Amino acid sequence: RTADQLARHYYQRLAGSAQNLVLADPGPRDMFDDRVYKRGALPLHTLRRRIGDTNFFALLQDWTGRHRHSSVVTDDFLDLAARYA
Questions:
Q1: d(CA 57, CA 14)
Q2: Is the sign of the CA dihedral 20, 23, 28, 32 positive or negative?
Q3: Distance of CA 11 to CAs 15, 69, 84, Å?
């Protein structure tokens, strides 16, 4: 399966799931639930589709190079991603 096919599959599967899980604090029972992990991957896949593979993988290399061994927040990623959009 391609990345697009997998993204569509998991999007449909998650859309039919209960929406009551607090993603920031799922608790020990649900910490590995697809609603936590797949939901995190879907926005990244959407970004990849929007900016293209070349820019997406350049962004990931830039991100890991800049922030290796450091703490970051979502806005840090969004700011860098905007440069590749």
A1: 26
A2: positive
A3: 6, 31, 25
For the chain, the average pLDDT equals 93
Assessment of whether the complete model's pTM goes beyond 0.90: no
pLDDT at 5: 94
pLDDT of residue 67: 97
How would CATH label the architecture of 3-84?
Orthogonal Bundle (1.10)
Alpha-carbon gap, residue 13 to 9, rounded angstroms:
6
Query: Residue 29, by phi and psi: left (phi above 0), alpha (psi -120 to 50) or beta?
Result: alpha
> 36 pLDDT exceeds 90?
no
